[in-house]
Amino acid sequence: MGTPRETRAEQAEEVIERLEAEYPDSTISLRYSNRLELLIAVILSAQCTDERVNRETEHLFEKYDGPADYVEVPQDELAADLDSITYYNNKAGYIQSACEAILEDHGGEVPDTMDELTELSGVGRKTANVVLQHGHDVVEGIVVDTHVQRLSRRLGLTEEKRPEAIEQELMGIVPEGYWQQFTHLCIDHGRAICTARNPDCSGCVLADICPSEKGDSDVDLASGEPW
């Protein structure tokens, strides 16, 4: 079992410093060329890997150019274009509804506020944060995906379970200038080392400060279950 820093704020800063050294080029992995493509890619990424989303959107973004294209196509056809994506029927509906609202209520442009974005179908706070950060250069919070949720609990940064509550707690301990980058660092480390089922604690640069480290700890703090 690693020994965390004395306070959660100190722990967060140490985690960021070490992960920045480990992943100096950490950034968003979804591919897009404009705000609408970003919004659609993030909607599709829910419970689906970014790698698969990128494969699907490569041809999707060639076929559909703007919100009107997504609205005018039959939903069955759009769903068929997404059929390798999890919950593709539901996501096709979300995309069409969101694009309709973008046309009718926002002059064809992806909105730039949290409230307006979360009014769109298929858009929760996590998706809105990604679109704000990478589409509008507006950082209002921390994107809490499954990697951020898992690592934050394992590293003793939070005991909260819900993404919204985790975000609020992290915003109090992660320096504001790192709110965006913190997510990317957690994602990279979660994919490479701190995986959900079998983390490689022996190869982890955070092992000595991680209270979930498997060498001595009996419990995975992310799940609360024994290793």
Automatic annotation (TrEMBL):
<dbReference type="GO" id="GO:0141016">
    <property type="term" value="F:G/T mismatch-specific thymine-DNA glycosylase activity"/>
</dbReference>
<protein>
    <recommendedName>
        <fullName>Endonuclease III</fullName>
        <ecNumber>4.2.99.18</ecNumber>
    </recommendedName>
</protein>
<feature type="binding site">
    <location>
        <position position="201"/>
    </location>
    <ligand>
        <name>[4Fe-4S] cluster</name>
    </ligand>
</feature>
<dbReference type="GO" id="GO:0006285">
    <property type="term" value="P:base-excision repair, AP site formation"/>
</dbReference>
<feature type="binding site">
    <location>
        <position position="210"/>
    </location>
    <ligand>
        <name>[4Fe-4S] cluster</name>
    </ligand>
</feature>
<keyword id="KW-0227">DNA damage</keyword>
<dbReference type="InterPro" id="IPR003651">
    <property type="entry name" value="Endonuclease3_FeS-loop_motif"/>
</dbReference>
<dbReference type="Pfam" id="PF00633">
    <property type="entry name" value="HHH"/>
</dbReference>
<comment type="function">
    <text>DNA repair enzyme that has both DNA N-glycosylase activity and AP-lyase activity. The DNA N-glycosylase activity releases various damaged pyrimidines from DNA by cleaving the N-glycosidic bond, leaving an AP (apurinic/apyrimidinic) site. The AP-lyase activity cleaves the phosphodiester bond 3' to the AP site by a beta-elimination, leaving a 3'-terminal unsaturated sugar and a product with a terminal 5'-phosphate.</text>
</comment>
<keyword id="KW-0456">Lyase</keyword>
<dbReference type="InterPro" id="IPR003265">
    <property type="entry name" value="HhH-GPD_domain"/>
</dbReference>
<keyword id="KW-0540">Nuclease</keyword>
<keyword id="KW-0326">Glycosidase</keyword>
<dbReference type="InterPro" id="IPR005759">
    <property type="entry name" value="Nth"/>
</dbReference>
<keyword id="KW-0255">Endonuclease</keyword>
<keyword id="KW-0234">DNA repair</keyword>
<comment type="similarity">
    <text>Belongs to the Nth/MutY family.</text>
</comment>
<dbReference type="InterPro" id="IPR000445">
    <property type="entry name" value="HhH_motif"/>
</dbReference>
<dbReference type="GO" id="GO:0051539">
    <property type="term" value="F:4 iron, 4 sulfur cluster binding"/>
</dbReference>
<dbReference type="InterPro" id="IPR011257">
    <property type="entry name" value="DNA_glycosylase"/>
</dbReference>
<dbReference type="GO" id="GO:0003677">
    <property type="term" value="F:DNA binding"/>
</dbReference>
<keyword id="KW-0411">Iron-sulfur</keyword>
<dbReference type="Pfam" id="PF00730">
    <property type="entry name" value="HhH-GPD"/>
</dbReference>
<keyword id="KW-0238">DNA-binding</keyword>
<feature type="binding site">
    <location>
        <position position="194"/>
    </location>
    <ligand>
        <name>[4Fe-4S] cluster</name>
    </ligand>
</feature>
<keyword id="KW-0408">Iron</keyword>
<dbReference type="GO" id="GO:0140078">
    <property type="term" value="F:class I DNA-(apurinic or apyrimidinic site) endonuclease activity"/>
</dbReference>
<feature type="binding site">
    <location>
        <position position="204"/>
    </location>
    <ligand>
        <name>[4Fe-4S] cluster</name>
    </ligand>
</feature>
<keyword id="KW-0479">Metal-binding</keyword>
<dbReference type="Pfam" id="PF10576">
    <property type="entry name" value="EndIII_4Fe-2S"/>
</dbReference>
<dbReference type="GO" id="GO:0046872">
    <property type="term" value="F:metal ion binding"/>
</dbReference>
<keyword id="KW-0004">4Fe-4S</keyword>
<keyword id="KW-0378">Hydrolase</keyword>
<feature type="domain" description="HhH-GPD">
    <location>
        <begin position="44"/>
        <end position="192"/>
    </location>
</feature>
<dbReference type="InterPro" id="IPR023170">
    <property type="entry name" value="HhH_base_excis_C"/>
</dbReference>
